[in-house]
Each structure stands twice: as C-alpha cells, then as structure tokens.
Amino acid sequence: TCTAWIKTATANRLLFNWGNFDDGAKWIVRLNTNGTLRAEVQGGNIYGTTVLTDDQWHHIAVVLEDDGSPDISEALLYVDGNLETIGGAGAYPVNTAADLDVHIGVFPPTDLRYYQGLLDDVRVYDLPLNPAEILEIAGP
After folding, report:
1. Which of 21, 39, 53, 104 has its Cβ near the most Cβ atoms within 10 Å?
2. Residue 41 half-sphere exposure, CB side, CA atoms within 13 Å?
3. Mean pLDDT score of the chain, rounded to an integer?
4. 3-state secondary structure of 15
5. Chain centroid to CA 48
6. pLDDT at 99 over 70
7. 134 exposure class (CB count in 10 Å sphere: 0-12, 13-18, 19+)
8. DSSP labels, 31-56
9. Residue 87 half-sphere exposure toward CB, CA atoms < 13 A
10. DSSP letter assigned to residue 132
11. The pLDDT of residue 98 is above 90
C-alpha cells in the first residue's frame, strides 16, 4: 500500500517510485496525462477516473495484495478515501525490487518531469490496507 496527500494543477507528473526498468520491476505512482491517479510497473498500468489536477488537496492510495501472482491490473486505487472507478488498465505481473531507492517527485535519471505542487505524508506500507483503514487515513 502506498498513500500520500497531493495538491497540484499539473498532470503527467511522478509522485513516488522505486525499482529499475526490468519488466514488472519499476513501481511508479503518478498522475496520468489526463490528471487521474495512475500506478504502473514496467510493462503495465492501471489508472482511475477522478481528475486530481484541480489544485485542491486529495488523499491518494494504491493497494496491491500479493495473491501469489500479483498483477498491476489488480491494484485498487483510492481517492479521498473512496475506491476509484478504473478508467483503464494494462495487465502485467508485478516483480518489484529494491534495486533503486525510493524517489519522491521524480524518477531519475531518465524522467525529469519533476512533480509540481505540494506532496505530504507519503507512506509505503508492507501490507494491504483495507477500505476502512484507507478511509481513516484520508480523514473525514
């Protein structure tokens, strides 16, 4: 589970990431070109439908439970504590590794589209949070 508070007016920007460019190994949480929440690994992705580029604070969360064969298309996306409607997905097995450190706001050295906006309380959990836990973190 990955969560954060974001406030921006700019789409197509990276929020946080880790891993390398091997298939399935690059884990990225970002804003899609249309301003919606997107999670991806090298080779696949999933994105929502709520536009987050309104320059207002939003809580975002991405949850992927390891069922023995995790796939990025199985990730659950949350915006402001609510399960997101999926706008599209490209299935691909997830095989992330800690080869590269966690980066916030950029994916060096190849993608220098720095995040433009405010980013707060970035969290990475080693377990899948349930909907009630996500809602509690997102607040009322």
Report:
1. 39
2. 21
3. 89
4. strand
5. 10
6. no
7. buried
8. E-TTS-EEEEETTEEEEES----SSS
9. 15
10. H
11. no
